[in-house]
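Field log, afternoon session.

UNIT: design team B
ACTIVITY: writing a sequence onto a fixed backbone
BACKBONE:
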């Protein structure tokens, strides 16, 4: 957990974040790794037809960007967090 937090902090600092608020995790915290999770996706699928373009911008709505797993046409075999982060970064390029 700490590795992920430290990595995210380094990325934000390299991107020029003015403020980075880092969560502190105490040494005695125990995480339950047997919990069930899922990655829900779809609903605003990215594509060439009217929906969402490659900047996560809705084709038919000015200044509406949909960032997250909703633009995936299907789920992959892996955790989607990194891809969603890349989509958010790409969307920021389209917001100029």
């Amino acid at each position: 957990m700490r590795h992920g937090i430290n990595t995210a902090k380094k990325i934000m600092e390299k991107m020029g974040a003015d403020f980075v608020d880092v969560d502190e995790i105490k040494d005695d915290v125990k995480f339950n790794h047997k919990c069930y999770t899922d990655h829900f996706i779809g609903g605003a699928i990215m594509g060439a037809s009217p929906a969402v373009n490659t900047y996560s911008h809705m084709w038919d709505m000015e200044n509406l960007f949909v960032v997250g797993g909703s633009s995936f046409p299907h789920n992959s075999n892996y955790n989607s967090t990194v891809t969603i982060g890349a989509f958010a970064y790409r969307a920021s390029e389209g917001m100029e």
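LOG NOTE: The chain has a mean pLDDT of 78.
NEXT ACTIVITY: expression trials, pending approval
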